[in-house]
Amino acid sequence: MPGFGDPSARLMAVGLAPAAHGSNRTGRVFTGDRSAAFLVRAFHAAGYANQPTSTRRNDGLRYRDLYLTAAVRCAPPGNRPTPDERANCAPFLERELRALSELRAILALGGFAWDAIREVAPKVYGGERPAGAFAHGACLPLGPGRPLLWGSYHPSPQNTNTGKLTFPMLVDLLHRIRASYETRGPDGARAP
Q1: What residues have CB less than 8 Å from 152, skipping those under 6 apart?
Q2: Which end of the chain, N or C, is less packed with Cβ atoms under 10 Å?
Q3: pLDDT score recorded for residue 77
Q4: Above 80 in pLDDT, residue 62?
Q5: What are the CA-CA distances from residue 151 to residues 21, 43, 50, 122 (Å)?
Q6: Is 157 within the bounds of a domain?
Q7: Is 188 part of a structural domain of the chain?
Q8: Which residues pair with 167 in a beta bridge?
Q9: How many domains does the chain have?
Q10: Domain holding 63: CATH number?
Q11: Residue 87 lies in a domain
Q12: Per the confidence metrics, is the pTM higher than 0.85?
């Protein structure tokens, strides 16, 4: 399942894998399931999407300044990807990171995606594997002049129905992420 969004994006959001009854069915990442409904509504509220819904591949959804992808490219058995599947799909994520030359921030939707970015970052940007624990709102620098890695709980019904992740929490985080890269230049220095 390829990613989808703005090729000039400054923000990349990374999920786990295509959901069997969402992305795998519709052919577009985070489309057609309850996780997608929650996430795209938040992207719209934060100004990244032209509409608040993502129901099917040709529904008119467009992202501005956002590219959305997944750490694993096919629907895993039991809807739970494994570290081996993440490692097998890492080259796809690496290529997307390299292609997004304007990237300033990466939002990991869940600890699985957080670890995927931490694993591929040295291959894409050089240096050591960045150390830092996943948490909602966590921010991890990937190095000077490189994107910041941000964490959010995954927008799964398990998290949203229990209040672990609320709509205001996610929208607030998206605003914080945008502010972080709009106040800094491409080299990471604070803009004038």
Answers
A1: 107, 108, 109, 110, 136, 137, 165, 170, 173
A2: C
A3: 64
A4: yes
A5: 25, 15, 24, 18
A6: yes
A7: no
A8: none
A9: 1
A10: 3.40.470.10
A11: yes
A12: yes
